[in-house]
Amino acid sequence: SEEAIVAGGCFWGIEHHLSRLPGVLNVEVGYIGGELHSPTYDDVCRGDTGHYEAARVIFDREKTNYFTVLQRFFEIHDPTQQTGQGPDLGPQYKSAVFYYNEEQHHTLQVLIKALVENGYAVATQLKAVTPFWSAEDIHQHYYMKHNKIPYCHQPVTRFK
Description:
With 160 residues, the chain is an alpha+beta fold. Helices cover 28% and strands 25% of the residues. The protein is built from 5 helices and 8 strands. The strands form 2 sheets. The chain has a 6-stranded mixed β-sheet with strand order 7-6-1-3-2-8, with helices on one face. Strands 4-5 form a two-stranded antiparallel ribbon. It is globular and about 40 Å long. The two termini are 28 Å apart.
């Protein structure tokens, strides 16, 4: 298996869409990027911890790959929005990808180049991975538990 960590607005919507991608084994929501040790949802929602609401995607490399997972990520959120996603505004909702190695970083650069060539002013930040803190159980698989659908993530074809 391999992992990808992405942030693009409310982590519930990211989890909902990426968990449906063939080859994805699990999606866990949590927090990444800040300095606070073991942050909580309330901490991160304040917007002053430096953390992002994020999703850690574990996928089977024999059934999918990093490129496919990240391509889907770029199509389920707006990578051009600089202040958050949809109605969720603040630094904790900005678009970012946390890469584990140079191969993932290169793949991200290829995807972003394709988006730019398709006319998108990409605001997604690329960052080396930092500690990922799992969110509280109430936030894991939120839409499935509550029989709801995401309100700020809508799939849009962005790659030709």
